[in-house]
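Title: Prediction job returns without error message
Component: structure pipeline
Severity: low
Priority: P3
Assignee: unassigned

Description:
Job completed but the reporter wants confirmation the result is attached to the right record. Sequence as submitted:
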Amino acid sequence: MKLLKLVPDDTNIDFVRLRKWAFGLTLALSLIAVALVGIRGLNMGVDFVGGLMIEERFPEPPSLDRVRQVVDAQGVGEAQLQQAGDPRTITIRLPAQEGADEGATNAVVRKVEAGLAQAFPGATFNRYSTVSGKVSNELIRNGLLAVVLAVLGIGLFAIFRFEWQFGVSTIVAIVHDLLMTVGFFALTRFEFDLNIVAAVLTIIGYSINDKIVIDDRIRENMRRYRKMEMREIINLSVNETLPRTVMTSVTILLALAALLLLGGHVLRGFTAAMILGIIVGTYSSIYVSSSLLISLGLRAEPNKEKPGTNDPTRRQDAERIVPRER
């Protein structure tokens, strides 16, 4: 039985040739992501801003203005409304009830539910969640700390495992992946909550796994082909690891696509972040992290053979695998 191969074994793509275009695209997308976050901001969930979130499902897509009027008439504070993927499902955010215990929160939920059921016959209550302001501040701090420590730890690992150039290129690529994810949420206005922080950390883990595999192959080929130019070493290493990269990405994307279609709107933001992270992480591993090593001045290890000796077999083998440009 013939094995499935998404990438041929003899693939020899000159990825480094496009590095300047890739760097320009990466910089442009990063600036756009920062601008989107600065202008539109993030649609922070109850986990980070505190308050009460009620999810209501209507028999037909309702008018948001009408829903807002009904909720405001209950005297429970100014409501913020948003469609939860399905136009018939609306999330209602209310400010935190100061000093309110669980019983008082349940009373607010029942009051809103009764008002909506009277104004919109057939409307049903799905769920609610509540977070205090103090807890939300702690979650923001801990979430940011987790992401920052993860990025720094990965960079230090790459520096001590390989060379400082590998650490810098890895951090740059991961920061790009994070900016793309945050910019996506600023653009789409998906709710940014603790599930998305978990998705971001998962994206970091996937990205670093892919980058370390490529970096390790680059390091190995630097020692094996000391007379080969760095450009050729990187192209050779990326092409050698390309089948694994593509197969891993495709299998993960298939699983995420099923989760996106069947997981419901509760997991839609998490799944969308993961899909974007896999695509962006693969791109940055191939075009950003690896090619940046050339700009950072990484060079192959000097030939440690004795003076006057020459190994034509090694040179011919290297030139056979990746032909030099004429």
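Comment from assignee: result matches the submitted record. Confidence is low (pLDDT under 50) at residues 303-326.
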